[in-house]
Write a structure and sequence with these properties.
By secondary structure, the chain is α+β, with helices and mostly antiparallel strands. The protein contains 20 helices and six strands. A four-stranded antiparallel sheet has the order 4-3-5-6. A two-stranded antiparallel ribbon has the order 1-2.
Length: 580
């Protein structure tokens, strides 16, 4: 089997590179479709290699209980299987989000990883399938050989097709992405396998210090990601978020391989588990209704799960269960928020909130039935509505609500048990909390818009100040034109509020000479007050200009205001002022 694996790996690599040169000789280039097909083939091979069985190295604890006789071989297998995973995912997504920086990562990082993996193929394979399986026939052994061959050959073609060792200075920052790639694809068992358990006294429940730090990190990480990504184009943002979503899905799937789906009590139907599949689907496809379900429902559920974790108080902070627990909760909690903040999806309206509540009702009814049905085959507690896990944390009254109102009936030899009053209260409370989330989102949006407006105004003020200083050097101190001593001018004036796409005033032109009396007439929203407030400097100008006696109100605000008298239009300021 070892010879067959190496043969497949080498033949695939050489075959891809040879095909590239043959096509190049015939003046035929590898087009985007070819790259995409190769990526999908690699993705399919990886999917089956990964999902067809557990990894031998996932049972390692502090470099013991290993399929290797030496600690060094164990470390190499752990680290390079992890690195290979990051490179495989990068190659799979490459043709769908191709850019100069992404190309640099693939043609250098992925190629180097592929070549090293070819040299370490025996070590990597034993780490995946174990010593005994490697000695005999194992389909995963063959698939891993094909996987490494595809990564190496694919990356080599990208290297040959993109100026070999030439890389622009601006693309050197791409190598910083590798850190994020490794963090996104780290298996949940990695820390435990390398270091064993950390501080045994650190309690990661009940909002103790270690628990609070983990919760704080769920807020810090998305802020850092937003700062890094908010100025990038939409496709780059979507590609990076999809890489993170798929990388963490792979880490989560260590405990949910194909074999686990044959046991109905192990299905990943918990709310946070569903988010691990929903988030990447919503990044691959534009599924608005599914996304807003996870935006309103999964975010809240993930936060509550992190605040009230269901692992034991004795669990260690870097054990596989705890690491995987927080990987999936982090993704369910902040990825939907980032997707809206980075404009992958639009801010939801009340209609989307209603749809999400309908979706939640369907999900809740489904898990009610599945809990009652699957309880006949084992212990299940999807969404924690089939036990007193939540009730126990709320007090005696909730325990009584759970225990004193039980409805049981039989269908053939199956027993179905429901807790109708408790489950109804659970549903209504969650809907109410979801509505509260809607309110918080709205307040956050208002704050974000205000902050953005302030930043834009400050930037504009600084630009205008610089422009004015330059103008003052070239012109005399007096900016007034002699032919416009007493005149009000609007020149292609436009005004748009905040991030709105609609203009309150668009390309307005007006000239009022000294001695003339002019009044604005128009329906509500026509732009009357907007023009007046822009003239006196209350509202900033979006485009165009306004001049008062020759002074530009934007560039010479002080001099223009010295020539303006203004009475605000707020009725409460002048309660005795009438038209008589």
């Amino acid at each position: 089997m070892k010879i067959a694996q190496i043969l497949c790996m080498v033949l695939v690599t050489v075959g891809i590179v040879a095909t590239y040169y043959i096509l190049k000789y015939k003046n035929i280039k590898f087009n985007t479709l070819t790259y995409k097909i190769a990526s999908l083939v690699l993705g399919t091979i990886f999917l089956f290699r990964f999902m067809l069985g557990d990894d031998a190295i996932q049972d390692v604890f502090k470099l013991t209980n290993s399929p290797f006789s030496s600690a060094s071989a164990t470390v190499v297998s752990l680290i390079f299987n992890w690195i290979l995973l990051s490179a495989v995912l990068a190659v799979i997504l490459y043709p769908f989000f191709k850019s100069s920086r992404y190309t640099a990562v693939v043609k250098y990082y992925c190629l180097i990883v592929g070549l090293i993996s070819m040299g370490l193929v025996t070590n990597l394979t034993i780490g995946i399938v174990g010593t005994s399986a490697y000695a005999g026939f194992n389909i995963r052994t063959l698939l891993l050989g094909l996987e490494i061959g595809l990564v190496t050959g694919y990356s080599a073609v990208v290297f040959l097709d993109n100026d070999y060792f030439k890389v622009a200075k601006k693309d050197l920052w791409a190598f910083a992405y590798i850190i994020g790639m490794l963090l996104a694809t780290m298996p949940g068992y990695m820390l435990q396998a390398l270091f064993g358990y950390a501080n045994y006294t650190a309690e990661i429940k009940s909002l103790k210090q270690a628990h609070r730090i983990i919760l704080y990190m769920s807020l810090v990480i998305p802020v850092i990601m937003y700062i890094i990504l908010h100025k990038k184009d939409s496709e780059t943002v979507r590609g990076i978020l999809l890489y993170v979503a798929l990388g963490t899905l792979i880490s989560f799937s260590v405990g949910h391989r194909f074999e686990s789906f044959t046991h109905i009590t192990s299905w990943p139907i918990h709310l946070c588990n569903t988010a691990m599949y929903i988030v990447p689907l919503c990044l691959i496809f534009k599924w608005d209704k599914l996304f807003y379900f996870t935006y309103f429902i999964n975010v809240l559920g993930a936060f509550l799960a992190m605040a009230m974790p269901n692992y034991s108080a004795e669990s260690n902070i870097i054990c596989e269960r705890v690491v995987t627990f927080y990987i999936k909760r982090y993704i369910a909690f902040f990825m939907p928020l980032l997707m809206v903040a980075l404009k992958v999806y639009a801010r939801p309206k009340i209609k989307q909130f209603k749809y999400s509540m309908i979706g939640f009702g369907i999900y809740f009814a489904l898990v009610l039935v599945l809990n009652a049905w699957f309880s006949n085959y084992g212990e299940v507690d999807f969404f924690f509505i089939n036990s007193d896990f939540i009730a126990d944390k709320l007090g005696t009254w909730a325990e009584n609500l759970f225990n004193n109102h039980i409805w049981t009936f039989n269908i053939k030899n199956l027993t179905f048990t429901f807790y109708p009053l408790y489950q109804l209260c659970f549903f209504l409370t969650y809907v109410a909390l979801g509505f509260g989330m809607w309110f918080l989102y709205e307040q956050f949006y208002d704050f974000a818009d205000t902050l953005k407006t302030i930043i834009e105004r400050n930037r504009k003020i600084n630009i205008d100040r610089l422009a004015l200083e330059i103008a003052k050097i070239e012109r005399s101190k007096t900016q007034m034109k002699e032919d416009s001593k007493v005149k009000l001018e609007l020149i292609n004036f436009s005004k748009r509020y905040g991030t709105s796409k609609n203009f309150a005033v668009k390309d307005a032109n007006l000239e009022v000479n000294g001695g003339e009396i002019f009044g604005f007439l128009g329906h509500n929203g026509a732009g009357k007050s907007t023009i007046i407030k822009s003239i006196v400097g209350i509202q900033p100008i979006t485009s165009g200009s306004i001049k008062v006696c020759g002074y530009d109100v934007d560039k010479e605000p002080v001099m223009s205001k010295l020539n303006i008298g203004f009475v605000p239009d707020h009725y409460a300021l002048y309660e005795k002022l009438t038209g008589r």
